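ZP: hey, is the zinc ion complex queued? I don't see it on the tracker
AM: it wasn't, my bad. submitting now with these inputs:
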Amino acid sequence: MSDCLFCKIIAGEIPSDKVYEDENVFAFRDIHPQAPVHILVVPKTHIACAADITADNSAEVARCFEAIAKIAAQEGLNDGFRVINNCGENAGQTVFHLHFHILAGKTLGETLV
Ligand code: AMP
Ligand code: ZN
């Protein structure tokens, strides 16, 4: 998608603080961190949001979660971490390229979720 911010980050057209990359997944630090560790994990394939996941593209989601486990080990998130996905307007999704937030580095509390 030529007008997608995260596609441009994956392509290197917009700089990012990359923490992980493999053939299918790209991960970088959120520009407005909401925890001491705040990393975005995105599939290289453009999927707009979780509502667009189907049997044809769900392997991309599995690859993201395989990457999340590797990133957690790489970043030493031994005390735990939270994974969040926002889908759609009411959830506050602002970038319409599927992404998973990894939040860690502090006690995250028991609200939301
Ligand atoms: P969401 O609200 O779930 O769509 O999350 C989008 C996230 O992308 C927000 O947490 C933003 O802070 C983050 N973000 C927006 N632009 C950039 C950027 N250029 N580099 C890194 N993170 C970004
Ligand atoms: Zn995209």
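AM: back. The chain has a mean pLDDT of 97.
ZP: great, adding it to the tracker
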